[in-house]
Amino acid sequence: MKTLFERSVTGRHCTILPACDVPECTPEITRKSEMRLPELSETDISRHYTELAKQTFGVNDGFYPLGSCTMKYNPKINETAAALPGFKNIHPTQDHVQGCLELLHTAEEYLCEITGMDAMTFQPAAGAHGEMTGLLLIKRYHELKGNTQRNKIIVPDSAHGTNPASSAMCGFTVINIPSAPDGCVDLDKLREACGEDTAGLMLTNPNTLGIFDKNISEITKIVHEAGGLCYYDGANLNAVMGIVRPGDMGFDCIHLNLHKSFSTPHGGGGPGSGPVGCKAFLEPYLPGERIVEKDGEYALDPRGAESIGAVRGFHGNFLVVVKAFTYLLTLGREGVPEVAKNAVLNANYLKHLLETTYDVTNKGICMHEFVITMEEMKKINGVSAMDIAKALQDYGIHPPTMYFPLNVHEALMVEPTETETKETLDEVAKIFLELHAKALEDPEYLHSAPHHSAITRPDEVTAARKPVLRFPFND
Amino acid sequence: MKTPEELKYAKTHEWVRFISDTEVEVGLSDFAQDQLGDLVFVNLPDVDAEAVEGEAICDVESVKAVSDVNAPVSGTVTEVNEALLDAPETINSDPYGAWLFRLANVTDTENLLDAEAYIKFCEEEAH
Q: Which of A136, A182, A395, A397 is the most exposed place for a label (fewest CB within 10 A)?
């Protein structure tokens, strides 16, 4: 489709705008050339964006099993709450925002209850930002104890790629440890890696293979005994929330992805929110201001000199917290574990339907997601994880997470979430099985998929390495 | 997995072919390309760049991730295989033909493994 610049016709414009009520001035520095803005009618613009919207795919369009991303349905009531004028039309420095402060205070209380933490900050804008914030808490803890030699973060090979990246961003050296054959942390390897220089461990539980690590208490004990702290990557909390708590597993700090587990929009629909929770002994290091309540009145209390300092302005993406809070109120205490149970049930149901045909790495019961490997099929007839992912698009299914986790070759990581019905899962399984049969009988059909989408196989490498970020005018 | 006898190997999975006592050709081993998965991009070093044994000299990108290529020995880059820029998948199909770069004034060769030792090393790493 054409860009706005290609649709532009000199002299065309929108409905006449009201007179400008800002006084004109002549700044000292003015641009010498005309701005080259596209000239379009309102109809052109409206149609352009509608056409763009038709080319997108969101959770409202169809099944979206993007593993470790928890692309659950985003209830519309969340948007209604976030659009209330008392939440929407405020400024972070204004007074008389008791309702907003109460919401943040109560959301902190609820999320601490769910995770087993003692305090939380809403400043981080998303998951990786939360990781960085949590690691800075760990760093500050060791610094203040004078343990500056503790500069290594241990990360298992099944971890999200952001874990080692965040560690490096915070100035830590990353120690990668391999998983045991059952996909869990290899305890011997962990013991070997722990020592005087261990700052901490970053772990997702359940991990990216959809396995709940049965040794979790032992893992956090080993790290603590070595003098390190334990960081919980909350990306996969959807599988366990309301059932078990990271705080009880022995974790000292965590981040949550409100845009995953707590049903706020994810990806292009964002923004995200990555609150960081911690145990009481880390609370003084948290960024931002603490919200305190006294006799029903809420106030902001600046943190002391031990704080790592702000990681973002004010209270982060406040309206995202409003949406997540609305979700929690909708679910109630009974609803939260119900979410986790259904997420696990849906994943196991879909796994059950696929595992006799596809090569699924989880042999027993999985948690909220499972991993298919196309390694054997690729060896036989060249049909790869990418080919299956592309072919799924023709059926209105968003591809699963691909080529991740890194310790599985040709991986397709499937997370159906709890918000899909049995009928959808049955239909999806039918399509997956059809594609498997097709792959055996006509591999070329899969190599050339998708056959029905506007864009088929873009050159992703060149797009990332040499992005074209502006319209190339001819003159 | 192929591991030609006449080549030397680094523990970071690069192979080294000696052209003379002080000149080598470097590529990625069969084990490395298999672990990386389908290669989609190769970032080659600059000619005249100084390679330091054990340090990253360039990188490759596969469908999974971007990975550093370490210099298996020290030396000066004299030539790079530009044909790989348009056909990075050659590393998957012909790992021992797809050399990445050539080095001259080669030193620090003592950590290289012979084929037998390298096979053993890969087996241990796989566990």
A: A182
Angstrom distances, CA of residue B123 to CA of A311, A408, B1, B117: 45, 17, 11, 10
Is B37 close to A386, i.e. CB distance below 8 A?
Answer: no
ipTM above 0.85, yes or no: no
Q: Which domains does chain A have, with CATH numbers?
A: 4-29+37-55 (no CATH), 76-330 (3.40.640.10)
pLDDT, chain A, mean:
94
Give the predicted TM-score (pTM) of the model: 0.90
Question: What domains can be seen in chain B, in order of their start residue?
Answer: 8-112 (2.40.50.100)
Tell me: pLDDT of A98 over 80: yes
pLDDT digits (tens, 9 = 90+) for A201-217: 999 999 988 999 999 99
CA nearest to B100, candidates B86, B82, B73, B113: B82
Find the CB nearest A406 among B38, B61, B64.
B64
Tell me which residue in A161, A386, A465 faces B63 most closely, judged by beta carbons.
Answer: A386
Q: pLDDT at position A66, please? A: 96
Q: Which of B64, B66, B85, B89 to mutate to test the interface with A (most CBs of A within 10 A)?
A: B64
pLDDT of residue B127: 60
